[in-house]
Input
Amino acid sequence: MNKYLAIAIGNTRIKAVIFGGDRQILEEYAFTHDQLPILETKLVDRDFADIAIASVVPDLLTIWHNLPQTQIIKTSDVPLHGLYATMGCDRALAAYGAGEVYGYPVLVIDAGTAITLTGIDADKALLGGAIVAGLRSQFWSLYQNTAALPDVHIPETLPNRWGMDTPNSIQAGIAHIFLSGLQAYITDWRSQFPLGRVILTGGDGDRLESWGLRVDAIDPLLVFWGIWHCCRKTKNPEKIKGDHF
Output
């Protein structure tokens, strides 16, 4: 069975999956940027029929970037309408993957280094979205930019809305304001698209769902579903032969 490598380079981590046939994921990997040599060592001797790379960090190159079977996916390659030039390809791919797997219209909430919201309508066109610093960025920024506030961890469970000391107040403020803001976007989305799906992804997706964010599904692999479907519709058919991707 031919195997295909897909790599997504985000702001914080590098993720990779190995596909078999029919969108079957055989292996998954996730490393920080400085751990790229570990990923390369694990996979350097493997033969892949095709390779696809989507990156929001142009200067970070892998050993697979210049191989003849490698396709570098850009935002302009994602077959959604109305995408703007500066939109990150990972965000576009996650939205496309969600729509192809769960149906359109779809709202994607990607809870990573940044939290992004991306709405795609029934005609596969960008409705719009929003971007805000992610949970870890919020806590870290507060600690870094104040003289006396402590470095507080993200709570595992939703804290009481009203904190009784400084650490609890920080946790309560960030958690509840985040949830309220995200839920307001979801409510507005559902008012426009009552049958539209809301899909949550990203490293903090599980945490937000456990805090009570009301979504239709959580799927950490949306970018890779987007890569899979994007490569099947590639504008460079000579890159993808037979049933590749």
In short: The mean pLDDT is 92. The chain has two domains: 4-79+230-239, 89-223. Strands lie at 4-9, 13-19, 25-32, 50-55, 70-73, 106-111, 114-120, 126-133, 197-201, 217-218. Residues 200 and 218 are 5 Å apart (CA to CA).
